[in-house]
Amino acid sequence: MFKGKLKKIDIAKNLSKKTGFSINYSKKIIDDLIEIIIFDLKNSRLNLKNLGSFKLIKKKERIGRNPKTKEEFIIPTRKSVSFTPSEKILKNLSKFK
């Protein structure tokens, strides 16, 4: 089992090991998948059957605070991505302890 931060190269190596593809080809597949997700998210929502849905969220400008210095600053408007896993994923995750 992987511990720590999962990197794109780790996913590529795992994909390469399972499929027999080269690591470079696996990295290309992952990069293309990420590119497709980003392109489809521009329409604000992407549903992947049996995986979940990605949703584009527009956050408004707000006041933030540095917890160390208590200095206030403005956090500008930005876009963020929300992921909601499918029921199948949640059901499979609940089997692990």
Description of the structure:
This protein is of the alpha+beta class and 97 residues long. It folds into two domains: 7-42; 44-97, HU Protein, Chain A (Irregular), CATH 4.10.520.10. It is built from three helices and five strands. It has a three-stranded antiparallel β-sheet. Strands 3-4 form a two-stranded antiparallel sheet. The two termini are 13 Å apart.
Number of distinct beta strands = 5
User: Can you write the helix and strand succession as a string?
Assistant: HHEEEEEH
| CATH architecture level-2 label of the largest domain | Irregular
Biggest sheet statistics: 3 strands, antiparallel
Strand and helix map with partners:
Layout (H helix, E strand, L loop, with lengths): L7 H12 L3 H19 L3 E4 L3 E8 L2 E4 L6 E4 L2 E8 L1 H7 L4
In short:
With 97 residues, the protein is an alpha+beta fold. It folds into two domains: 7-42; 44-97, HU Protein, Chain A (Irregular), CATH 4.10.520.
